[in-house]
Amino acid sequence: AAARAVSVGPGLQSLQRTLPLVVILGATGTGKSTLALQLGQRLGGEIVSADSMQVYEGLDIITNKVSAQEQRLCQHHMISFVDPLVMNYTVVDFRNKATALIEDIFARDKIPIVVGGTNYYIESLLWKVLVNAKPQEMGTEKVIDRKVELEKEDGHVLHKRLSQVDPEMAAKLHPHDKRKVARSLQVFEETGISHSEFLHRQHAEEGGGPLGGPLKFPNPCILWLHAEQTAYAFIMYSTHLRQACWLMS
Questions:
Q1: Is the pTM of this model over 0.85?
Q2: Which end of the chain is more exposed for a tag (fewer CB within 10 A), N or C?
């Protein structure tokens, strides 16, 4: 099981609880990384980054990564492990690796703390929302190449083709969003079932709903951070100034 029952403290071994998956999200500059670090130290947890840019090696200042010193204070995962030249790293790749990490953290009776600003990365960990067209081949060159081939075609041509096989999904996607249009076409070509039908089936599963299928992990604790407008504007200005200085150096 992903979450394990553990004793709550000395002398209370008979009382059991389920470790939660902690999720921290919010806009840039709202203090997500700071809160995650504080919770990680206080709870003895481990941090799983959910940022689509921080997965890449380098670019530390531009992507506002936590420092090496901060990473030593609490174990961090999913940071700086993808070559920046890799163009086909997807949310499916992220989900598969991060899910395995979260299950390993739970297995060691620790609390995983997911933190980041890429919401669709976070959604892939909270709900069953993604479609594995061919699970036995997912991540292989064959699957990746088909999507890459589709993305080479004109966006309007792809969108017209999608409207013929999956009009519901086509109505939600713009022709310029070739990545998502190609993904929906890939699902249909490899399964014979439309992408929208896959999603409807997930939503209809027990525990499913408008946001996706059933929860992957029980008892998630979701913290959505906000900042006052004036403070947020100052933080963003400082961040952009630091990035500009780094680019000029």
A1: no
A2: C
